[in-house]
Design brief:
By secondary structure, the protein is an alpha+beta fold. It has 17 helices and eight strands.
Length: 382
């Protein structure tokens, strides 16, 4: 069995849905686009994506010396929605993050394959998921696994944007697959579907400063006030552009390890999440991608969602959050209380809690959030 056939066999045994092969030439177009995005500020606070990192990530031979082939592998990540429970306000978690962290799933599978490449096929091999210094989407497009859509997601025929990617660079020389001759044509559904306008009007460019996924996963800063009402009930990631894509998810049923085990994994009840301390947060989301947001960032997201979809019944939990040890949580809790009051009317207990917070708060931006909320609450609370 030749190297290509053996790797394809290993991919099948590992449960991968797709496998393709790419050459290792420099990703010139991807490099230019990433450098431009960094210069224009579209990478927001992703400070680790320096010019040097981008240059390495678009040069497969910098990832593995002597690399001649990159194997691109995909599993599907379209976890169907369970029935959304009735009752208290709930948030929404991106489909890929509702079960086990796919990075862990991928790592074990890719490492096994890389070991076989080294021990059985005699080539050097190095594996990575999307956290590594290798831009896997343009490589996957080069390999014909899919094409880069206007949303900047990879669109795989039959699977749409619902593919999670990993890569193995190897010194084995394997004939590359040809890129697909496909585009999104005149379709603009993902552009229209994005609540914050993060996708450029012509597509193909994403501004992280406007992206819900960026803010709810990567950012450790306050979410800009003008964006918060557009986040809806998303508390980790966002699937709006993916859900709108007509390429389809007919074959994209999620890998069993990625599927939610309960409705609460997909649609957690919001108010109770505000009671999580660091230990409880780690325990509740152990082995799941949600941990990437950190406890403080996640509770910030929960506050924003409550500000958008919460009711007066949630005010008690938000009042308690005003005393949280993290300014990131306190400030967004104040904003949420103001939003709920603006929709449903004020409450004397809310006004009292905000005033008490203002009396002791030292963080300037949090004070501004509390003052803005108080400007709404007293007029309705009498």
């Amino acid at each position: 069995m030749d190297a290509r056939a053996r790797i394809e066999e290993l991919a099948g045994e590992g449960g991968f849905d797709l496998v393709r092969f790419a050459g290792t030439g420099t990703l010139e177009g991807a490099r230019a686009a990433a450098l431009e995005s960094r210069t224009e500020g579209r990478l927001a606070d992703l400070h680790w994506m320096t010019d040097e990192w981008i240059e390495r990530a678009t040069e497969p031979e910098a990832f593995l010396a002597g690399a001649k082939t990159v194997v691109l592998l995909a599993i599907t990540g379209h976890a169907p929605d369970p029935e959304r429970p009735e009752g208290p306000a709930r948030g929404q978690v991106a489909r890929y993050a509702r079960g086990r962290d796919y990075h862990r799933l991928f790592e074990s599978k890719l490492r096994r394959m890389a070991r076989v490449v080294r021990e059985e096929l005699g080539g050097e091999a190095r594996a990575t998921v999307d956290y590594g210094p290798l831009l896997e989407r343009p490589l996957a497009a080069r390999a014909g696994l899919g094409w880069l859509g206007k949303s900047t997601m990879l669109l795989a025929p039959g699977f749409g944007p619902w593919v999670l990617l990993g890569a193995i660079a190897t010194t084995l020389e394997i004939a590359p697959d040809a890129p697909l001759r496909k585009t999104c044509g005149s379709c603009t559904r993902c552009i229209v579907a994005c609540p914050t306008g993060a996708i450029a009007p012509d597509g193909g460019v994403l501004d992280s400063r406007l992206c819900i996924s960026y803010h709810t996963i990567e950012s450790r800063e306050p979410i800009p006030r003008e964006l918060r009402p557009k986040f809806g009930d998303w508390i980790f990631g966002c699937d709006d552009c993916l859900d709108s894509c007509p390429v389809g998810s007919a074959n994209a049923a999620s890998h069993p390890d990625l599927a939610p085990t309960t409705p609460d994994d997909a649609f957690p009840p919001l108010a109770e999440l505000l009671a999580l301390d660091d230990d409880a947060f780690r325990q509740r989301f152990r082995g799941r991608a949600v941990q990437r947001a950190t406890r403080d960032g996640f509770l910030r997201n929960v506050c924003v969602a409550l500000g958008n979809v919460g009711s007066p019944d949630d005010a008690g939990a938000l009042r308690e959050a005003l005393g949280d040890g993290a300014a990131l949580v306190r400030g967004h809790a104040a904003w949420a209380l103001g939003e709920i009051a603006g929709r449903h009317g004020g409450d004397g207990a809310v006004a009292e809690a905000l005033a008490a917070r203002l009396a002791v708060e030292r963080e300037g931006w949090v004070r501004e959030e509390v003052e803005a909320a108080l400007a709404v609450v007293p007029g309705d609370s009498g």
